[in-house]
Design brief:
mainly alpha; 2 strands; 2 helices; 80% helix
């Protein structure tokens, strides 16, 4: 059976892995976003703009660029949100590990203190 400290270590490692995956999702979103913008700008002669997103709904290439842009933005936001979520989970797991280790340290200190006081109480034997 796995004890609580090992469980927390495993969960912290899993959160670290999930955080890396979410950063990869965010990078994929950024690539698709830039690719969609570049594709729309290069294939259409005069794109229409919504904020900083170019779109052209009259041509099929404009639809592809708009789709890449929207999917890229969604993945970018989703990846950043997941990275923040998993990072906060990992911080919580490490805080719980600190608490568990401090409790174990306090137990060891009190045990050592009891042993040292019991050794002082024993009378020393003289050498012959």
């Amino acid at each position: 059976m796995i004890d609580f400290n090992n469980y927390l270590h495993e969960r912290a490692e899993e959160s670290r892995h999930n955080e890396s995956v979410s950063f990869s999702i965010a990078i994929l979103g950024a690539v698709l976003l830039v690719g969609g913008i570049l594709e729309t700008v290069t294939t259409t002669s005069n794109p229409q703009w919504f904020l900083f997103f170019p779109y052209q709904l009259t041509e099929t290439t404009g639809l592809l660029g708009t789709a890449l842009t929207v999917i890229g933005l969604a993945l970018l936001i989703f990846g950043i949100g997941l990275a923040i979520h998993y990072s906060s989970q990992r911080v919580w797991y490490f805080d719980e590990l600190k608490k568990a280790y401090s409790i174990e340290e306090d137990k060891l200190r009190s045990k050592r203190k009891k042993e040292s006081t019991s050794e002082r109480m024993k009378p020393k034997q003289k050498k012959r």
